Amino acid sequence: MVAHSRGEVFQGVVDADGRPAAEADRAAGARFQLERALPPIGPGSWRLALRTLAHPRRFTPATVFSGWIPRGIFSTESLKDTIRRVVPSGWSPHPNLWLVACDYETGRRTPFGRAGAPKADLADAVAASCAIPGIYHPQTIAGRRYVDGGIYSTSNADLLRDEGLDLVICLNPTSTLHPIRALNPREWVNLAMRNASGRRLGSEAKKLGARGTEVVLIQPVGEDLEAMGPNLMSPRRRNQVIEVARRTVAQQLDEAENRDLLADLPPGDPRKVRRPDGPPSEWPDWRELSPRQPAAG
Questions:
Q1: Do 60 and 145 reside in the same domain of the chain?
Q2: Is residue 86 part of a domain?
Q3: pLDDT, tens digit, 9 for 90 and up, residues 230-278
Q4: What is the pLDDT of residues 28-46, one digit of tens each?
Q5: How many domains does the chain have?
Q6: Tens digits of per-residue pLDDT, 176-185?
Q7: Do 167 and 282 belong together in one domain?
Q8: To the nearest whole number, what is the mean pLDDT of the chain?
Q9: Residue 138 lies in domain
Q10: Residue 185 phi/psi, 5° resolution?
Q11: Number of other residues whose CB lies within 10 A of the CB of residue 139
């Protein structure tokens, strides 16, 4: 989402002087033009495609689909640049940040940041966890290619089942408890995706509950779905979605069963949450809310 908000960097893009886009100064407002080139043809990962062909029941439908579709055409460099503004290199100072991606050859999940996972810079791990097959380039880390962990699960809550936690709070924007009427054929894919995500989330919550962990699930309600629209990748309604979610999430957290579970949590830092003035249509671009770090050198 951040990459969409900021604007993509394309493989094979040159600036007005014909230089590779990677050499262009974005801050100077360089103009870009697309080179004429054919999109990738054939499966983005032959090894994953063949694995799913040989053992289709071992993989989620999204993983099967991901192996066979062509490799993504958009770079994640702009997303990594955004992360590097906060953490130029290395990992997050937060000790328990996990970012889930999937190996593009085996389909196995890798929670970067967890003990035993390959060492990675935060920017690369974020890019890997956002690399939707067919849209973004896979991210190479420690010699292996990774894509969005959502091809296995959009929630991945079950990764916490052996952590001995008292409480897990899961915010899952791709599922919903609100009944959806998909009368328009264009909405059938969205309906199927949300249903599959919800089933997976429910299964993971049960696994956590079986280990004695309480679970609070926050999912979009009808108002959220209306604000989000069918295209979850579109940034056009971003501010409207935020405004609606501030209210609907607060309402869900205040429900009796959730309020009791959350009662002993410490209050959040009010300095980290600030609503811009005015209606969402007049909010500043998110890039204006965080100053750039000075360039090195």
A1: yes
A2: yes
A3: 888 888 888 999 999 999 999 999 999 999 999 999 888 877 777 888 8
A4: 333 333 334 456 789 999 9
A5: 2
A6: 877 766 556 6
A7: yes
A8: 83
A9: 43-152
A10: -55, -30
A11: 25
